[in-house]
From TrEMBL:
<dbReference type="GO" id="GO:0042802">
    <property type="term" value="F:identical protein binding"/>
</dbReference>
<dbReference type="GO" id="GO:0005829">
    <property type="term" value="C:cytosol"/>
</dbReference>
<keyword id="KW-0808">Transferase</keyword>
<dbReference type="GO" id="GO:0004838">
    <property type="term" value="F:L-tyrosine-2-oxoglutarate transaminase activity"/>
</dbReference>
<keyword id="KW-0032">Aminotransferase</keyword>
<dbReference type="InterPro" id="IPR000796">
    <property type="entry name" value="Asp_trans"/>
</dbReference>
<dbReference type="Pfam" id="PF00155">
    <property type="entry name" value="Aminotran_1_2"/>
</dbReference>
<dbReference type="GO" id="GO:0033585">
    <property type="term" value="P:L-phenylalanine biosynthetic process from chorismate via phenylpyruvate"/>
</dbReference>
<protein>
    <recommendedName>
        <fullName>Aminotransferase</fullName>
        <ecNumber>2.6.1.-</ecNumber>
    </recommendedName>
</protein>
<comment type="subunit">
    <text>Homodimer.</text>
</comment>
<comment type="similarity">
    <text>Belongs to the class-I pyridoxal-phosphate-dependent aminotransferase family.</text>
</comment>
<dbReference type="InterPro" id="IPR015421">
    <property type="entry name" value="PyrdxlP-dep_Trfase_major"/>
</dbReference>
<dbReference type="GO" id="GO:0030170">
    <property type="term" value="F:pyridoxal phosphate binding"/>
</dbReference>
<feature type="domain" description="Aminotransferase class I/classII large">
    <location>
        <begin position="28"/>
        <end position="391"/>
    </location>
</feature>
<dbReference type="InterPro" id="IPR015422">
    <property type="entry name" value="PyrdxlP-dep_Trfase_small"/>
</dbReference>
<dbReference type="InterPro" id="IPR015424">
    <property type="entry name" value="PyrdxlP-dep_Trfase"/>
</dbReference>
<keyword id="KW-0663">Pyridoxal phosphate</keyword>
Length: 395
């Protein structure tokens, strides 16, 4: 039965973690996967999460099935976080939100839903994009194309190319946009550029699918969410996937959500009914724990404040590591300009290192992605000098 099955290719990023785990060098450093580590090199268990868990355990609840669309308190809190509590799309009941298995699960139910109702549309993702975007939409049955995004010569966004690509897309095309902290490049659009993108998407009758996996890691929770609000304000149909894997450091709990904005409350309830059908035939209903923790934090003022502080702490530490890397490379690799690392936002930097240079780093047990992407959130005051020395050596 399985005799003819071929070996599937490894996930290019999670595969690095497998190689890293197998490395016996105690000084090994994993700059591959997008995970935030604190200055001690540990994945933090946020205090707001611990306090929410303690609070939940004061009145331990049975683990019955959740509704298909998840915990109502969670969906409501997420909606307010993503669109803003005073949002017209919430007040007019045009937005629906479904708890999902992380950002990946949100993208997958969104993709399955879209395939059912826009079977002839193609999907467009940025060049480059998160590796899983293409695979996810292809596995839902779509043909996936790239739109121009990154310009290696400026280490920024090829905005003219991006706009031209958007203008050339047929009406009904699905455009996946990174709301903030572009993965893998760390290069985001300016507010003015977003204005032009929004106008072009609307004029072309395109279907925007905003993926927000790093809300709070660029400039702040509200600042990063602003782009979703601006899309929503146009009144056009919109899909938004969001994830709490990074912002709550709850990777393994699989907490995310898919929100869809429709053109009326009545249309939204039909959309929700179909989305629930997608969920039901995939995994029936989401798990309880992560959703309860996040809902508790978001809806308890003192825990919410604590979360905002802890998230700001992660954001600031990453920025400090960017600055430290630039300054240290200035000293160790004169003649090479790494100032751009300071300008990039979120967890990643497209460092400009070649595949060959990444290979040489690996010989020193420093793991990065072949594309040159490094996770700046994995740098700390203990490992940064070793990383900078190794980078200077391979340049
Ligand atoms: N979208 C992007 C751009 C990501 O980088 C990630 C990272 O994991 C995801 C979606 C998926 O989020 P999750 O890990 O919550 O499934
Ligand atoms: O890009 C990253 O590193 C994160 C984590 O299949 C990740 O988004 C990577 C690959 C993958 C799932 C998550």
């Amino acid at each position: 039965l399985f005799g003819a099955i071929e070996m599937a290719p490894r996930d290019p990023i999670l595969g690095i973690t497998e190689a890293f785990n197998a490395d016996t060098n105690p000084a090994k450093i994993n700059l591959g996967v997008g995970v935030y580590y604190d200055n001690n090199g540990k994945v933090p268990l946020l205090e707001c999460v611990q306090k929410a868990e303690a609070k939940l355990m004061e009145q331990p609840a049975p683990r019955t099935y959740l509704p298909i669309d998840g915990l109502a308190a969670y969906d409501k809190a997420v909606q307010e976080l993503v669109f803003g509590a005073d949002s017209a799309v919430i007040q007019e009941k045009r937005a629906i939100t479904v708890q999902a298995l992380g950002g990946t699960g949100a993208l997958k139910i969104g993709a399955d839903f879209l395939k059912r109702f826009l079977p002839n549309s193609d999907v467009y993702i940025s060049d480059p994009s998160w590796e899983n975007h293409r695979a996810l939409f292809e596995s839902a049955g779509f043909t996936v194309h790239n739109y121009a995004y990154y310009d290696p010569s400026t280490r920024g966004v090829n905005f003219d190319g991006m706009l031209a690509a958007l203008k050339a897309m047929p009406a009904g095309a699905i455009v996946v946009l990174h709301a903030c902290c572009h993965n893998p490049t760390g290069a985001d659009l300016s507010q003015e550029q977003w204005d032009q993108v929004i106008a072009t998407v609307q004029a072309g009758g395109l279907v925007p699918f905003l993926d927000m996996a790093y809300q709070g890691f660029a400039n702040g929770i509200d600042e990063d969410g602003a782009v979703v609000r601006r899309f929503a304000a146009t009144g056009m149909p919109l899909l938004v996937s969001n994830s709490f894997s990074k912002s709550f450091s709850l990777y393994g709990e699989r907490v995310g959500a898919l929100s869809i904005v429709a053109t009326s409350g009545e249309e939204a309830s039909r959309v929700l009914s179909q989305l629930k059908r997608v969920v039901r035939t995939n995994y029936s209903n989401p798990p309880t724990h992560g959703g309860k923790v996040v809902a508790t934090v978001l809806s308890t003022p003192e825990l919410r404040k604590l979360w905002e502080e802890e998230l700001a702490g992660m954001r600031v530490r990453i920025r400090e590591m960017r600055g430290a890397m630039v300054e240290k490379l200035k000293a160790k690799a004169p003649g090479h300009d790494f100032e751009f690392v300071r300008e990039q936002v979120g967890m990643f930097s497209y460092s400009g290192l070649t595949k060959e240079q990444v290979g040489k780093l690996r010989d020193e047990s420093i793991y990065a992605v072949d594309t040159g992407r490094i996770c700046v959130a994995a740098l700390n005051s203990t490992n940064i000098d070793r990383v900078v020395d190794a980078v200077a050596k391979v340049l």
